[in-house]
Protein 1
Amino acid sequence: MNTVAVFGGSFDPVQNGHLALIRALSERFDKTLVVPCRISPFKTLADIASADDRIRMLEIALAAYPNVEVSRLETDAAGISYTYRTIRSVQQMYPSAKIFLAIGADMLPRLREWKEAEFLRTHVDFFVSERAGFETESWLNGLRADGYRIQTSGLRIPDDSSTAVKVDLAFGKNPTVPDGVLRYIADRGLYRK
């Protein structure tokens, strides 16, 4: 492995916006690790699907991508899912690979506040996708001036929130999730509250 991309999140549920980015990562990097979190430092513990359900939905959605792996690095770990811990584990798994961390541009304003931000600044290259309605350029310039290695993906992530997807599911609307995932959600009775 020369390059490994790490893409984390709640994936509650995985949706087409996630898949567009994962597809791009799979085409650009030798290996892509999709890492659903156990407990996100950015979200409250609201009504979230179990780790097993979120992993299974990802596996269904990503079955066609042989160089994409759904990882249990965070779901099997105790406590809050901090990115620096995940990156350390990935470094041990792929010691000779260059590691890229895929994030949305909406994460840029708080990047310096992340737990062990200095470790991340020196050990990963950030691969940033634009978010609709978010001005990116000034944040990129400031972070690069501070020594963050950042590449832009050229992708614009749709502004589909997981909350909106869950509301659509609860009211029987057709949300932006892959068909196989939609069937899994229906079979398991997820997001009906």
Protein 2
Amino acid sequence: MRTTNILLCLAALLLSVSCIDDKGNYDYENSESVMPVSISGLAQDTTIQQGSTFTLEVGKHFKVNNDDPSRYTYEWSITEATTAGFLPTRTYIGKEENLNYPVKLAAGEWTLTFQVWDKQKDLYVKAQTHLNVVASPLDNGWYVLKDQDGYTDFDYITNSGKMYPNVLAPSEQRVRGEAVKMIYQNERYYHVQKNADGTSTTLTNQKALHILTTKDFCTFNAKDLQLFKSFNDEFYSAPTVCAPQDIDISGFAMNVFLINNNQIHSIYGMSNNIGKFAAPVVGDLDIYPCMINNAMYELVFDRKSHSFFSARAGGTTLTPFTDPAPNSSLPASVSNMPYDMIKMCAGQGRNYSGDYGFALMKGVNDGKTYLAHLRYDYSGTYSTYPIMTFLEVPSNSGLLNNECIACPASGEFIYYSIGNKLYTYTNASGIDQRDHLQLTLPEGEKISYIFNYRGAYGNNYNYLAVLSNTTTGWKLRIYEPEGVDIEEIKPEPIGTYSGTGTGRYVMYRTNM
């Protein structure tokens, strides 16, 4: 063995000497002649927005130096910049020298690679740049929830009037079904994120957008529109029927309530949680899909027992209102009432002391229609009698034929619409004319949603949003009432916007 090792060492030495002394006649090619193409000028870091079109033009944004363009093919691709324990996924986005790419990436860090292939020599060179993809700059302003071709999306309009259409479409996160409602949660949302190594991380105090449709319920990170949860993940144990109908957040407690398939679920917001709804309230219930909140709880109506109840976050049962009526003009009790619910609407949300609403109800015995003005007050108890006035609606009132109704921020009247006309109805007795025409929109429009947004806690805005649909899309007009608790509306809108799809709901987001 020792002899063998010595021989191998001598052979290696002889070879090295022969290489040093070799004066052979060889042809050498420099690197430029082997691969004459080169890429230069690509920016090292670029920030782009979801939904935009990312363009890189040769000669303008970068250079490709080559001797014969016909010899080369081109390829643009995208991969995740960082991954947690798994291989990045490569997506090919272009095969031309110039890049023209509609950005359909999730917000985050990505790597863009440009590769030039020499077909003759079967060699390639490549250049890379770092991409920071950001979501649409969602902030305060107007959000129009709409649907088109069986999917729900939303358009965002800043307070200065700049519009960002189809916000979810670029990241391919539109939600299945017709639009129902959306709500913004500005704090105290929790989400458990699963890591690649099998561990979990709980994200705390997140800002969230909740979107309800007829076929799904999705929660998104309000900062970057990453999907937190869809319907089956929203619950500890998902209901067998997916039929989201209403969602609301009660006052400062940040308790979140959901009505799905006429059953009510909740998340208690005053303690750590994982952002999942508990089992529905126990009982043979048929909850009307509308809630009125106060600082802690929600006022709901059960159509089977004909009763108003208070719903508490985390509660397994509904709490009846035990206080009697304060005067004889009101129903003696709001439990087992001799009235059916026709339609119910809630006013401005998240007032700490309580919020208003209206309920259009029909007498079981007399067949007459009544309008109940509701206030769900919070004064240290959740069982205060909730009806303020209860008056018969004349049989000739247009309110009986309403298509949409809306509660003012305060005031003893109600908004309603029929076709392209907006009315108010004065909720008072002894008045000959209770219906008042406020607006007539152009022919071909049909009002689909109305809401009065009024600022609180130092915010002095007072807006009436009127959403309508035409054969080509939605229109949103923002009006100002003549004053607080005044029915008349200033004739000209302070803002008019339009978009594609069928508009169903309008949300006005503030810092609250």
Protein 3
Amino acid sequence: MGGSGVCDRALHHGHRPLASMVALWWGSAVLAVITSKVCLSRGMQPMHLSLIQFSVATALLWLVLRLRHNSQEIGAGSKLVRNVAATYAAAFMLTNLAFSLSSTPFVETIKAGEPVSTCLLAALWLREVDSLATYLTLLPIVAGVALASYSAHGAHSGHAFVATVASNIGFSARAVLAKRLKKEHPESPCAKSDIVLFYHVSRIGLCFIAPVVLTHDGYCWLMGAAISTSKLPTSSLVGLACLNGICFAIYNCTSFAVLSRVSANSHAVFNLLRRVVIISTSTIFFSLDVSLWNICGIAIALAGGLLYAKVKFATNSRGRNLGFYAGLRTSDVDKLRIV
């Protein structure tokens, strides 16, 4: 694959900072997923975890922008930024809900099917059509996800499947809206800087999540009663959730940093390998029993994702794809599929 060749050249031709960033990206992603699962398995509500994640990310990104003396203005396209934040916040809460209902490998495998929801959303919402080759590459993704889902065992796997698919749709909607922002308001600070965009998405997303949490728990949440049933002391659980929020912010930011240094195809390879690392690490960490059917389903889904990336970016580079993505840089397309 062309992308893997770029990866090899980037990593072996004296680009040690890139290798360090990839290691930080993958390491923080593994820690973010594992600490999320631990928090949720110890009784923390998905909404509470999302609230802490967005709060920590907002604070860290504000500090980074202050230290770099970057503008914190939204600029033009504020409505689109709010829509991006709303879909992103909803998708992230649904992801946390899915992690609370099923195993990490199961959820990560379903999340590998996000290209399917992206293509469907582009076709239904924007009336845009991709190449036949792109749609054909979705078949192994669907087959792998279906196989992994069918062979998955454990309580509430059906609910976890629905929550994860819904989160994929949310992330796909976020991708389309962010692309519109970059296309319609290129002069906006959020369109020019991914860190600025991520800061405002986290900040505005926090404004969406906080009322939901307060409405749901009200006085009990304010008094700390909502997490009093945890097997860990409240202070330890909140501290672990804050660590999770730090890892959540780091792995998103380092993913953007890696993307700025490699091609989109290479980044897609790195991103899928990251998912393999997360699935493997979480399986070992939580001592999960994985059947042969699970392994086959995960492998087929991830292989389909690699094939999709290769065909999609090759089509974009030749300028053959139609409609919404025509004329757009391939790096911008993959930049929207970080989580």
Protein 4
Amino acid sequence: HEAGWSAYVQAKRVKATDRHENRFTETVNGKDTPSNVVWTRTPELTPSLSIEKWDTASGWPNGDRDNKEDALTVNGDTDITFTITNTSKTDEAGVGAIYRAKDLKLEDSTIVGDAHVTDLKYPKDWDTLLLKPGDSVNVTGTLKNVSGEHTDRAKVSGTPLMECPVDDETPFDGSDADADKDGTPVTIDGTRYCTQPAVESATDDWNGTTVPLAQTGSA
């Protein structure tokens, strides 16, 4: 009897590539019939964050004092700015990982000296602010009680949101019922995003120093 059927191929993307081709070959009664070629592009969309720390009065980039040779001579309290940037890679449409500012965790620790940055101030819209790829936000603080050499080190971590993957065990039934099971979905601009593993930035150092007191001969 004559018989008819349809065959489908399901593939899972496992790494980024500019072009990957898929095809299959049907073999019936010893006769090979190749399918057409379907190709896909999987862009590199690795989420990332960066942080830069600078003294506010000097501005950027003059206030970016990564090395002791560039240390600021500190006189009293010093305003410090932390610039956090979403450096995630994007596809050709500019789509990539998004961070909610409220999910970011800024850490600053003193590694030389006894002074500390205190009184961190966040933007008023911190709880609703979204950082799309290329977006930045500033957090400010005050460096107090510098005596002698000072170095502190900042870093930031956050939970990226990316478009929810479609993980459908029945891909040809016309339903996407299984699409959002990897993470809690968040709708942004009409698109559903799911949480991804946390990301941590590289660290950024800032250096300062004080002018030593003149030698007067007294104890």
